[in-house]
Amino acid sequence: MLADAKIPITFWDEAIATACFVQNRTLLENREKNQETWDDSDNDDDNNLNTEYPFMSFHNLDHVVSNQAPDPSVSQEDQVSNNFDDVNPQNSPNDGGSFQNQPSSDPNVEVIPESFDYFINSPEQVPNFTPHTSTILQDLPNLNQSNLETQVQGDSIPTHRVHRNHPLSQIICPLNQRTMRSQIEHANICLYSCFLSQVVPKNISEALQDNSWIEAMQEELLQFRKQEVWKLVDLPEEENAIGTRWLYKNKPDERGIVVRNKARLIAQGCSRRRQPPGFEDPKYPHRVYKLSKALYGLHQAPRIWYETLSKHLLEHGFTRGQIDPTLFMKRENEDLLCVQVYVDDIIFGSTSSSMCKEFEEIMKSIFQMSSMGEINFFLGLQVKQSADVIFINQSKFVEKLLKKFKMQDCQTIRTPSDVNCKIQPDPKGKSVDQTLYRSMIGSLMYLTASRPDIMYAVCVCARYQSDPKESHLVAVKRIFRYLKGKPNLGLWYPYEGNFELYSYSDSDFGGYALDRKSTTGGCQFLGPRLVSWQCKKQTNVSVSTAEAEYIAASAGCSQVLWLQNQLLDYEFNFLKTPIYIDNIAAMFITANPVQHSKTKHIEIRYHFLRDNSEKGLIILIKVHTDKQLADLFTKSFLSGRFEFLIQSIGLINHD
């Protein structure tokens, strides 16, 4: 409850009281049909949970303030209904851990939840009241106005004092012993004792000091025993046993809260391995484990797992994708079930809920897998689903990166790259930590899975990983400053809309100052949904804009053909897919097979664009430069043009 409400641990007592309040008014599953809760017979009207709201929710506070203006004749100090020194006994918690509700006499005023015993004075909604002294002065004309006080200054210092000296009769502890005061640090440790460990141990000695990680390691070894992965044998002569080591990792949910401590025991390369550190057999400490099945750390493990999984799925009526071997599909009448496999993480969806339940039962019975419910977090991607749209972003990962690289307090900026300062080699510049620079680039590259707005800036900075300078580090930090201002941007996938495949392709002619090579950019859509995007420096130097655009269109054609083949597994056949470019000369080169001075030196591998155009797989269409969405992946822009492009590709801020 504290984690969901995002409040500090000092509110633990309010959380317990709220939990008791709800539990005492909720019917349990094992109750008889007509059995009431303990509080039903006395407070029928107060036990209606339809009026309850989430813990620490400010649902009704604005409504109460707007309908109850404070009395101007009452001082600000008297507006407080209760304080922590003088509590009204009628509002104190009862033995059941709940609060007695005090309904208002006004039917138009909603009741504030019982956990709030104070009046909230909103300066935005409550009008300012001034004393009406004009009427009083008219009734009393003989009074000297200089002797009148128009404002009364209240005493802000409380009159109630707490004395340290108490009578001996009130002291219950032995007088000859010194009183030991509790420390708040110890209290916090006790409070967190029921939660999973938040710290990942670096070695086995640290893990053995935490009960959470001990249970995680025991769970891993229990699975080995159930699956008959190994057996304990004597080490043969003239053979060496391979060592083992533990890997530890926290499994967070979509909110970033740790929900599981995962421990894995991996081999270091052979079929005979030493006993796991910290869990040696006391009777046979010198024996080794002989593997009967593939396990983590072995080169055969991924292949064996995929073969085992695909075998069982094919036996249950699934078909494997022709293009994507990790895609499995099953049809029953007009219903379809799709299963996508990524190592040991599986996502699936169907047009029939019964097919989903059947698949869950198969995975539970064969592989002892557990269903996590509706997908909301997968491989670092946060997924929010509603009745008409799917939203994907990585806001938690952005928050983690800002904290990791100490950029959480930086000033925000509106664009990830500076249009007036191009990133160039800086041989005379000051060198920076190469490990830190590469770590930043790698983290940002992973973030581009849902943030195409930083794709170009990250790719340009990634060109200087071999010898980064201070100017390059400043450019990378600018990307973090941009992310600080827009952490919640994500891809918007509406259910409504057409389902046509089309692509944009563009290039920045000679944009790289070091070798004058151009940058290729492209993006592909299924209706209004962005499904793929690219940014890459071309491998050869183009001598004209037509050549650079032609090479970029060839790269876009390759991506379109790959998507066409992918969609064939879903029984979608797209022909004559439009590729929008803003260069007429490149279109003429595709349509006209005659060689001339601008095309005779173009490599043969780029001419497959013309071949696929003749086959009817793609078609080139002219688009105005202002509507060329692939520009986002080829150069820097001012904030106005940049905002237009990210909104046009479907990148939306979702708070």
Summarize the structure.
The protein is α+β, with helices and mostly antiparallel strands. It has helices at 2-5, 12-23, 61-67, 134-139, 184-191, 204-207, 211-227, 301-315, 353-367, 395-404, 434-447, 455-461, 470-485, 545-568, 584-591, 608-615, 639-648, and strands at 230-233, 244-252, 258-267, 272-273, 288-291, 319-320, 327-332, 335-342, 345-350, 377-378, 381-385, 389-393, 489-494, 501-508, 519-526, 529-537, 577-581, 618-622, 651-653.
The main sheet comes to: 5 strands, antiparallel
Strand content: 15-25%
Supply Rg: 34 Å
Stretches where pLDDT is under 50 for at least 5 consecutive residues are 29-34, 36-44, 59-141, 146-150
Which geometry do the CA atoms define? globular
State the strand order across the main sheet: 10-11-12-13-19
Helix content estimate: 25-40%
Structural class: alpha+beta
Terminal CA distance reads: 21 Å
What number of domains?
A: 5
Number of strands: 19
- What integer is the average pLDDT? 75
Number of helices: 17
Oligomer state equals: single chain
Give structural notes:
It contains 17 helices and 19 strands. The protein is of the alpha+beta class. It folds into five domains: 1-136, no CATH class; 204-299; 302-373, 2-Layer Sandwich (TATA-Binding Protein); 392-491, no CATH class; 497-623, Ribonuclease H-like superfamily/Ribonuclease H (Nucleotidyltransferase, domain 5). The strands form five sheets. It has a five-stranded antiparallel beta sheet with strand order 10-11-12-13-19. A five-stranded mixed beta sheet has the order 16-15-14-17-18. A four-stranded antiparallel beta sheet has the order 6-7-8-9, covered by helices on one side. Helix 14 (545-568) crosses helix 15 (584-591). The longest helix is centred in the C-terminal third of the chain and has 24 residues, at 545-568. It is globular and about 100 Å long. The model is unreliable at 29-34, 36-44, 59-141 and 146-150 (pLDDT under 50).
